[in-house]
Amino acid sequence: MLNTAKQRMIQDTINRRDEALALLRSLMDAKTISERNLAEIHQPDLLKQVTGKSSMDTAINSTRRLIDSFNRILDDLRRNLTDEDLQLIGEIESNIAIG
């Protein structure tokens, strides 16, 4: 059972990471479209002029950090999660479900 819990946690984390990767691709596509549209109408990105970064740049960087975090969590889960950790997590999940 504990091994199954570990596998489930790893798979859930992979799923969340993959969702973040899809979001990153969407953000990058949206940035390209936005930049193209601004160029077509000869308008600057005002936020980028002031801060040096567009709002899309900020979102892309945040999403990349999130993906890096998921990858670090996956590494930790695969390497360091003990049976005792899994039992504690199971108890916490049970309390959350009850509460």
Descriptive labels:
88% helix, 4 helices, 99 residues, mainly alpha
Number of helices: 4
Order of helices and strands: HHHH
How much of the residues is beta strand, in percent?
under 5%
Care to count the β-strands? 0
Distance between the termini: 23 Å
Low-pLDDT runs: none
The biggest beta sheet is recorded as: none
Protein structure class: mainly alpha
What is the overall shape? elongated
C-alpha Rg (nearest Å) = 20 Å
Helix percent band:
over 70%
The overall pLDDT, averaged over residues, is: 86
Question: Can you describe what's shown?
Answer:
It is a single chain. This protein is mainly alpha-helical. It has a domain at 28-80. It is built from four helices and no strands. It has helices at 2-40, 46-51, 55-80, 83-98. The protein is elongated, with a radius of gyration of 20 Å.
Topology:
Blueprint: H1 2-40, H2 46-51, H3 55-80, H4 83-98
Helix pairs in contact: 1-3, 1-4
Short description:
With 99 residues, the protein is mainly α. The protein has helices at residues 2-40, 46-51, 55-80, 83-98.
